[in-house]
Amino acid sequence: MTDRSFPAQPNQFPAVRLRRRRSSDWMRRLVQENHLQVEDLIWPIFVQEENGRSPVPSLPGVDRIGPDLWVEVAGEARALGIPALALFPVVPAHRKTLTCEEAWRTDNLVCQAMRRIRSQVEGLGLIADVALDPYNATGQDGLLSDSGEVLNDETIEALVKQSLAQAEAGAHILAPSDMMDGRIAAIRAALDAAGHSDVALMSYAAKFASAFYGPFRDAVGSSGALKGDKKSYQLNPANAREAELEARYDIDEGADMLIVKPGLPYLDILYRISQTSPVPVYAYQVSGEYAMMKAAAANGWLDEQAIVAETLMAFKRAGADGVWSYAALDLARALRS
Ligand code: PBG
User: Fold this and answer.
1) Mutate to test the pocket of ligand 1, among 135, 141, 325 (most ligand atoms within 8 A of CB)
2) Of 318, 257, 256, 236, which Cα lies nearest the Cα of 285?
3) What residue owns the CA closest to ligand 1's atom 7?
4) C-alpha 205 to ligand 1 mean position (Å)
5) Region for residue 173 given its phi and psi (left: phi exceeds 0; alpha: psi -120 to 50; beta: otherwise)
6) pLDDT in tens, 71-125
7) What mean pLDDT is reported for the chain?
8) What is the pLDDT of residues 190-205, one digit of tens each?
9) Ligand 1 pocket check: which of 90, 174, 216 to mutate, most ligand atoms within 8 Å of Cβ?
10) What pLDDT is attached to residue 10?
11) Which of 72, 120, 166, 232 would bridge 171 by S-S if both were Cys, CB 3.0 to 4.6 A apart?
């Protein structure tokens, strides 16, 4: 990177006038430092067992999508040039257990969706979430001990099985969102041993115990199930140094890419990590952030398209290589038109 601090440009007003570079649209485009492109977008979608669509009340504009529409929806993303889709399953309550074996059933909902889309839509990246919460009767991302604590090493064994099932079903990228220690190394080793060395790991390296995940939990039906909070594994929102350490350890363990999550309230974390990361770093604009923008727009208080574009640009400016956004499809359409 070039050092822009030397030589310093002294303020020589009136000879120097910064407004000259903002004087017309073409000039502003000429000097623009960052760009938001369709290539930056990762689109998270929710898949359900029933055909058709069902809306998520706390995520206006986001529908859970049934098997009859998977290929159509993925094809639309592909046609707009969105590089990758991330799939989250809506698991019916009767399939949730304390041992979570549904997570690695080779024909579970997310594996079915992966297989179907992979075989019918060319040139679209498929990202699978690695964590137990959609399958767990407790709503926690890990297995629980008898006394109710989230077990690290036992959970890793389960995550490895889940990862292998998802890789087998055709996932190109696995995104562990569980925040257990050591899971990246374990999943990498298991994938390689099973002949899946081409499957990449995008680690939720800095995932905070945030109140912004509420609408997501409504969408996948885990909010009712969730007992307690996730503070024993997700990061404390007060800590930045610890987030940098999480990022470094995940890189050491073999992560190909990192995620910082949530997005806008954690731009400082994104900036710090992306300044030094040798691998690409993505921001996740989470459900609560999206819901706030939608709610304000629905009241006529903010211009939805403008606010979405501005917030996503903020991630690029802070150093993100790309952004997970529920607004990805709408934004891609806007960028193409
Ligand atoms: C669960 C998971 C969560 C999100 C992605 N994966 C929720 C949580 O940790 O409780 C949140 C995404 C969002 O809010 O948009 N492993």
Assistant:
1) 141
2) 318
3) 213
4) 13
5) beta
6) 999 999 999 999 999 999 999 999 999 999 999 999 999 999 999 999 999 999 9
7) 96
8) 999 999 999 999 999 9
9) 216
10) 79
11) 166
Q: What's the farthest any 2 CA atoms get from each other in the chain?
A: 73
Quick one: DSSP state of residue 55? E
Q: What is the pLDDT of residues 124-136, one digit of tens each?
A: 999 999 999 999 9
CB atoms within 10 A of CB 237: 17
Q: Which of 217, 220, 173 is nearest to 49 (CA)?
A: 220
Distance, in Å, from the CA atom of 163 to the CA atom of 273, rounded to the nearest integer, reads 26
Q: CA angle, 320 as apex, 250 and 244 as ends, to 5°?
A: 35
Percent of the chain with pLDDT over 70: 97
3-class state of residue 38 by DSSP: helix
Residue (of 83, 82, 86) closest to 330 by Cα position: 82
Residue 323's DSSP bridge partners are 41, 283
C-alpha 310/C-alpha 319 separation (Å) is 14
Amino acid letter for position 78: R
Q: Report the C-alpha gap between 222 and 91 in whole angstroms.
A: 9
Under the banding of pLDDT at 50, 70 and 90, the label for residue 222 is confident
Placement of tokens 């009340």 in the chain: 57
Q: For 151, which DSSP code? A: P
What is the pLDDT at residue 223?
Answer: 76
Domains of the chain, first to last = 36-259 (3.20.20.70)
Q: What pLDDT, on the 0 to 100 scale, is given for residue 295?
A: 97
Spacing, Cα 213 to ligand 1 middle (Å): 6
Instruction: State whether the beta carbon of 135 lies less than 6 angstroms from ligand 1.
Output: no
CB 43 within 8 Å of CB 82: yes
